[in-house]
Amino acid sequence: MRNSILLILVSITFIYCQNNIYAQGERLYQTYCSNCHGLDGNGLKNLYPPLNNSDYLKENNEKFACIILNGLEEEIVVNGKKYMMPMEGFKNLTDVDITNIINYVNSAWDNKLPETSIQEVKKNLESCN
Question: For the Cytochrome c domain, which residue ranges apply (predicted)?
């Protein structure tokens, strides 16, 4: 009986992990990003831009790591709307954390953006500033 329960728990854990390959990125997104960009990635009214189906994100994906790390002060246009609210950076996040967030956002909701490697994130972070 005990072995059966253990086998069921291991199976459930395995299935869950297989279905949510960006679980760590999702947790980090919920902690650092969702207050402004929403759990659904659709932003916060006219204050914070959407990350879901964002033309800005599609066209500037190589800048995403720098934006997460350093924030953003400049006005941007996302899906035809101007956003001027500054975004704080998260200097406490590691390269791995940033990669996980990017991969979660790139694959979440209606996004179909390519996966990013840790090497790409490190390269992109070198070009910040």
Answer: 20-109
CA pair distance 102, 120, nearest whole angstrom:
11
Q: What is the pLDDT of residues 96-121, one digit of tens each?
A: 999 999 999 999 999 999 999 999 99
**What is the token pair recorded at 112?**
């179909």
**Can you tell me the distance from the alpha carbon of 121 to that of 117, in angstroms, rounded to the nearest whole number?**
6
pLDDT digits (tens, 9 = 90+) for 17-64: 556 789 999 999 999 999 999 999 999 988 999 999 999 999 999 999
Long-range interactions of 53-58: CB distance < 8 A, separation 24+: 53/79, 53/109, 53/110, 53/111, 54/78, 54/79, 54/111, 55/79, 57/105, 57/111, 57/113, 58/113
CATH class, domain 22-126, is mainly alpha
The domain spans of the chain are 22-126
Question: pTM, whole model, 2 decimals?
Answer: 0.84
